[in-house]
Amino acid sequence: MTSRLPPVYEHHRLVPQRSFAELEVGERFPLPSRTLGDGNFAAFQALSLDNHPIHYDAEYCRALGHPGPLAHGLQVLCFTVAGAGTFPYTVGENLVGMVEVRARILKSAYPGDTLYPCLTIAELKPQRTTGVVTMSATVDNQRGERVLEGEHVYLMKL
To answer: Where residue 87 sits, what CATH number does that domain have?
Structure first.
């Protein structure tokens, strides 16, 4: 397959491109850690339009027994976006796109928590002209507690 990308792109790849057949179950793609701060909460509020005080009002949260505002579950899920790591660069132009995402929030995340997301290839299903890559998505906090677990499913060209 000839790439439609400019030739200079080949000299600026972050990692060598690999095909579906070159991927392996168990392969890990760690994502950058993030310490939650006011900026994260404000940005997600602006994006999601969620104005519930459980996510933004420290006094409201303390009255309910929380140490501070709770990070929105979708916000924590966003930290597992594959584009934050090397997976989409690894598969390059073979990536068709994400076709499914599932997640369970297991523990609350608060301002000051540092989150450590990771994607791990859980299953590879070749089809006739495409392949399905299922990745487990996890987010642990600075205490090693699992905050989120789920799956991302991607479609790739073979």
So the answer is: 3.10.129.10
Burial category of 14 from C-beta neighbours within 10 Å (exposed 0-12, middle 13-18, buried 19 and up): exposed
Quote the domain boundaries for residue 75: 18-157
CA dihedral (91, 97, 103, 108) positive or negative: positive
Q: What letter would DSSP give residue 89?
A: H
**Reported pTM:** 0.90
> Does residue 88 form part of some domain?
yes
Quick one: CA dihedral 77, 104, 132, 26, positive or negative?
positive
| pLDDT one-digit tens code per residue, 75-91 | 999 999 999 999 999 99
